Amino acid sequence: MPFVDAFVSRGLQGGEDAAKHLRSALLDYLKKTPRYHADDRIVIRVYANCRGLAKTYRAAKIIPEDSVFEQFMIGFNNSHPLSDYIDAGNRKEAADSKLKANFELFYRNFHCQHVVFGGSADSSYAGFLSPFAAPTAVNDRITLLEGPAFPSDLKKVAQGFRQTSFPDIFRTVKLQVIPNGSIAGTAGIKRPAAEPLVAARERPPAPLATPVSTIAKAQAPPAAPQLPLPPVLSPTIFQNQYGQRLDPPLNYDRKYLQHLYDYNSKLCNNFYLKGHCPYGNTCEWDHSQVLNQLQLDTLRHKARTSACRSAFCTDPQCPLGHMCPRNGTCNISLCKFLPEMHHIDTSQVYEVNTATGERKKVAVPA
């Protein structure tokens, strides 16, 4: 989300003007949202690899030297006590991790009325934002701020949120330096419409893909009872008494699971577990196989080893894990599952129909 060149090129004064214009634009926008109150405070936090960004601005001939961008940051910070332009350092994804952590921190604080998130040029945010999108409505606590055009995968996720743009404040094309020192803009490429799950049933069964170098050693995938794919994905999820998402145990085939790991099978989780893939025939992952129910449950079991971003996820199609598989025995200091996804209370379990909102207590097997 680079600021327009006219602000950055003016250093100290440009930074102050950029921050004031942004705060004013946000206030005008938030006044139109249902949760706005006249005494609300706006907190602005910008994170960037500032040394790398300054070099990019200089290479693009927007600033004559790096110190101009340093002055821009100082001006931005001086504009208001709650406006921060922060150097996240040059470690890979340092700025991304801070943005995501702050997003989750404020979103889960119910004193926070609204979050405006700017990261429109980076498609990697699609997976991060997806769990916050309501399945049948727009999440009115989140607005996605578009600068450069949303990439195709983020564009689909963005439909679950409010959207706005401030073209007088942020560039509408990416900041990219090409060999002659000029600037080029890039935009997302439109992908074909989603391919329906029913198409998989119409294909003849196909063997699992195997790396060419190991074809001679590969064995056929273990057989499993042939069960039909479910025609409709269930809207039901399970929660505990505190609203935390629960992942019910799955009946899975250990031999087939080992086969998935051994041959690094690239089965598309979206296609097989969510019912559709937004990339259709252009997806880099495998859509070609017909899986029976036991194989699907095994694939889902494998998918759950990756953590969802929300312990309170209400997306019934979410294939990711919401409980650490090690639960009370986890001793990994940097476990990818959130702290609240450990030691989950399952003394009371509720079945929730996300389509109707019905919530009923169910018995837990001893």
Automatic annotation (TrEMBL):
A GO molecular-function descriptor: zinc ion binding
Which keywords describe this protein according to UniProt? Answer: Metal-binding, Zinc, Zinc-finger
Domain named C3H1-type: which ranges? Answer: 262-290
ZnF C3H1-type residues are 262-290
InterPro entries to which the protein is assigned, alphabetical = DUF7923, Znf-CCCH_tandem, Znf_CCCH, Znf_CCCH_sf
Recorded hits in PROSITE patterns, A to Z, give: ZF_C3H1 (PS50103)
UniProt superkingdom: Eukaryota
Task: From the Swiss-Prot or TrEMBL record, give the protein name.
Answer: C3H1-type domain-containing protein
Q: Which organism is it from?
A: Cladophialophora yegresii CBS 114405
